[in-house]
């Protein structure tokens, strides 16, 4: 049986930061907001088994494009001089769709949504994606944390030994 290829998610980083309530509070510290977003997306991508790319604009910088590979299924892109996150996302979505991959783009930018739909990708508004991530986090907690059961009684070695062995050990203990 052929394994289904992973779906690709491409996320417009600053668009999401400016849409999600817990990240909007951090707009004064964009580094912290980016780190929190990346952490949430890594967790979600690993849980759902998606390939994920989050893209941040670096339009007004003199730097070249910079890609941080977090793991084999997650990377962070800082666009280079003169390139917007939107143009990078459109290009990457088009490339993946052309290769036959299922692609999802997360942005609330209406023009961007139209472009990726035209390329054959799916689109998710940032706020809708926030609800999807929150729901997945609850499922993750329920599925894994609710199953943890502590033992009702102590597990002592004496419970697993026969009477003769216990008697010998007890005699050794009392010989001191």
Spell out the blueprint of helices and strands.
Blueprint: E1 8-12, H1 13-17, H2 21-24, H3 30-48, E2 51-56, E3 66-71, E4 74-78, H4 85-98, E5 103-106, H5 110-119, E6 122-124, H6 126-145, H7 163-174
Parallel strand pairs: 1-2, 1-5, 2-4, 5-6
Antiparallel strand pairs: 3-4
Question: What do these coordinates show?
Answer:
With 176 residues, this protein is an alpha/beta fold. The chain has helices at residues 13-17, 21-24, 30-48, 85-98, 110-119, 126-145, 163-174; strands at 8-12, 51-56, 66-71, 74-78, 103-106, 122-124. It has a six-stranded mixed β-sheet with strand order 3-4-2-1-5-6, sandwiched between helices. Strand 5 (103-106), helix 5 (110-119) and strand 6 form a beta-alpha-beta unit. The chain is elongated, with a radius of gyration of 25 Å. The N and C termini lie far apart (66 Å).
Q: Can I get a quick summary?
A:
With 176 residues, the protein is an alpha/beta fold. Helices cover 48% and strands 16% of the residues. The chain has seven helices and six strands; from the N terminus they run E-H-H-H-E-E-E-H-E-H-E-H-H.
Tell me the strand order in the biggest sheet: 3-4-2-1-5-6
The mean pLDDT is 85
Helix-residue proportion: 40-55%
Radius of gyration computed on alpha carbons: 25 Å
What fraction of the residues are assigned to beta strands by DSSP?
15-25%
Q: Looking at the structure, what is the overall shape?
A: elongated
Q: N-to-C terminal Cα separation, in Å?
A: 66 Å
Characterize the biggest β-sheet: 6 strands, mixed
Number of helices: 7
Element order: H for helix, E for strand: EHHHEEEHEHEHH
What is the oligomer described by this structure?
single chain
- Which class of secondary structure composition applies to the elements? alpha/beta
Number of strands: 6
Which residues form runs of ≥5 with pLDDT under 50? none
